[in-house]
Amino acid sequence: MLRIWGRITSVNVQKVVWSADEMGLAYERIDAGGAFGITQSPEYKAMNPNSLVPVIEDDGFVLWESNAIARYLAAKHAARGLWPEDPKLRADVDRWMDWQATTFTPAMRDAFWQLVRTPADKRDAAALAKSLADSEKAAAILDGHLEGRAFVAGDAFTLADVVNGCAAHRWLLLPCEKAPRPNIERWYASLKARPASGQVTSLALS
Ligand SMILES: N[C@@H](CCC(=O)N[C@@H](CS)C(=O)NCC(=O)O)C(=O)O
To answer: Given the CA of residue 15, which atom of ligand 1 is nearest to it?
Structure first.
């Protein structure tokens, strides 16, 4: 059976779990990382020398990097809707997946850590302010892109919605003032209505 290592509070683990749930896959998720440890053990490092989550093991095949895992699962299970075969459509999905991993989530990392995982008296105000400003820029780009569109890439739900949905979940729940983003909110509400998103969209931030 497919095994997924990683705590569900990790946005990168969330992307894999939501992808697997969209495909209706059976899997076992093993808590690892953060307070669960495990990632520094020699056995885990043999799977992922970065000591990060998630990692999957599928019939002896080991893979890390959350977006690569989501694409592998879609390819293996012929989930063509989630990762289309048409080169242009696929490139569009890949582009927005890369954007999530390189721009949207990194922008909000400090804000998330400062507001959710750091006591108020120990926060770094400058890091928080910069991260909030960067996040607003990214949110404005996504909101503008979603104007008149139901989904991030193409006309149907894809992996680009899954990974950006995980990032948006984190952004929308961050306890801070944000500019109104009506297109993100409409799109995110439609993702939240999908049964397969439940493990992620029902989570409180921690
Ligand atoms: N690019 C990697 C990043 C993985 C990553 O940064 N994972 C974080 C959690 S989101 C992690 O393992 N942090 C250390 C820990 O949880 O112990 C991916 O997308 O899988």
So the answer is: 19
Reading the block at residue 201, the tokens are 């969209």
174 by DSSP, 3-state: which?
coil
Q: Is the CB of 11 under 6 A from ligand 1?
A: yes
Q: How many CA atoms lie within 13 A of 181 on its CB side?
A: 23
Tell me the per-residue pLDDT of 30-46, one tens digit each, with 9 for 90 and over.
999 999 999 999 999 99
| Confidence check: pLDDT of 80 > 90 | no
Domains and CATH numbers, the chain: 2-76 (3.40.30.10), 87-197 (1.20.1050.10)
Is any ligand 1 atom within 6 A of the Cβ of residue 65?
yes
Instruction: Report the atom number in ligand 1 closest to the C-alpha of 65.
Output: 20
Write down the pLDDT at residue 185: 98
| Percent of the chain clearing pLDDT 90 (strictly above) | 98
Atom number in ligand 1 closest to CA 11 = 10
| CA distances for 177 relative to 13, 115, 173, 182, angstroms | 27, 12, 11, 15
| pLDDT recorded at residue 79 | 78
Q: What is the mean pLDDT of the chain?
A: 97
Return d(Cα 121, Cα 206) in angstroms, integer. 18
Cis upstream peptide for 87 (omega within 30°): no
